Amino acid sequence: MTAGCGTIALRRMRFQAHHGVGGQERAVGNRFEVTLSVTCPMRKAMESDCLDGTVNYAGLYAVVEREMRQPSQLLEHVAWRIAQAVRRQFPQVQGGTVTVTKVTPPFKCDLDGVDVTINF
User: Fold this and answer.
1) Exposed, middle or buried, 83 (CB in 10 Å: 0-12/13-18/19+)?
2) DSSP designation for 3
3) Sign of the alpha-carbon torsion through 91, 92, 96, 102
4) Do the strands 95-102 and 114-119 form a parallel or antiparallel pair, or are they unpaired?
5) DSSP summary character for residue 73
6) pTM over 0.90
7) 98 and 82 Cβ atoms separated by less than 8 Å
């Protein structure tokens, strides 16, 4: 990370969405969590206390929320779409990670969820 850059993280955003391979999952939906972390320049915001010197995290949330409304079969595809949408809307973002968690996967198991994480 270069001087004047920092990280913004939105942790465990919760959504009801219709992602999955099975027809039942796509019809009924499931619970998901998304964690997004982005690296971006922040020097201007740090020095001036001005929003235009950073990335607006409410805007990041809106991007994730919009992408979560669009059904996909695979969590990998959802994560990739979120990353691409963040890059398009916020060109100052230098990179980041996105984790999509299916909280209650549709098979017999005792776990806290299934995660897919991509770096961008």
Assistant:
1) buried
2) T
3) negative
4) antiparallel
5) S
6) yes
7) yes
Amino acid at 107: F
pLDDT in tens, 20-49: 998 888 889 999 999 999 999 999 999 999
Residue 6 forms beta bridges with which residues? 40
Closest CA to 34 of 84, 87, 78, 88: 78
Residue 66 CA to residue 77 CA, distance in Å, equals 14
- 104/118 Cα distance (integer angstroms): 20
Percent of the chain whose predicted confidence (pLDDT) is above 70: 99
Q: Kind and range of the H or E element at 114?
A: strand 114-119
Q: Which of 102, 111, 113, 114 is catalytic?
A: 102
Is 50 within 8 Å of 19 (Cβ atoms)? no
Annotated catalytic, 102?
yes
What residues form DSSP beta bridges with 33? 14, 101
- Write the Ramachandran bin of 4: left for phi over 0, alpha for psi from -120 to 50, otherwise beta: left
